Amino acid sequence: MHNLLRHIKADYIKTKHTPLRIAHLVIPCVMAAVFLAYYAVTPWNAYSKVQAYFQIIGLGYPFLIGTFCAIVAEQESYAGAYQMMLAVADRKSAFISKTTLLIVLGTFSVVLATVLFGTGYYFVLKQHTVRYSFYWIAGLVMVGGSSFLYIWHMFLALRFHKGISVGLGIAESLLSAVLLTGLGDSVWILFPAAWACRFVCSLMYAYSTEQRPVVNCGREMWICGAVTMTALFLYVMWSCRWEGANWNE
Fold this sequence. Notes:
Largest sheet: none
Oligomer: single chain
Number of helices: 9
């Protein structure tokens, strides 16, 4: 644990000269401000406004995850062709720390976006469609549903190329939009890119009807957790055997 914390601290320092920090702060602030300003004048249904906001976050999340993972992987590639990760004694911590750091930054960013919006929507616009606690809980649920994508895209960015991670992130965002429709009602659990949106929609429905969220997608939550933990295990096992990217592949 000590080695992991030390690696996370080092990785955070490395982000000083990258757009990661500023992006995780600016994007949620801009999103909340733009949507609140728009919702102040639009005649949409109050429930639909909240649902649309979280769906937009969920749709853009896979693309942002793919981009941020690509930035981290590219930084390590330029800093000695991944030797700072491959040459350390505790290689597992070096690989896990990068994914952990991105998840922590993502948690801060998503919760900030949801809480800022919720504060403005609930207290300024006086729209009490759901309880205020929904907004920060929804942010945490969204990050939890997207944890698998961080592991997946970090693997892609390291093993292959940053373009693979970014390109697949775009495809996943488009796919998650399709799976929000009736076409995805029975198959969305098979596509991790759709988990965040679907879980939050289920949570919102539970809040608006005073039901327990687990009633709506309890089985799916267990599947999400199991798949994420399995992916983390495989990622760690792969990191112990990886010898660096081969650009001729």
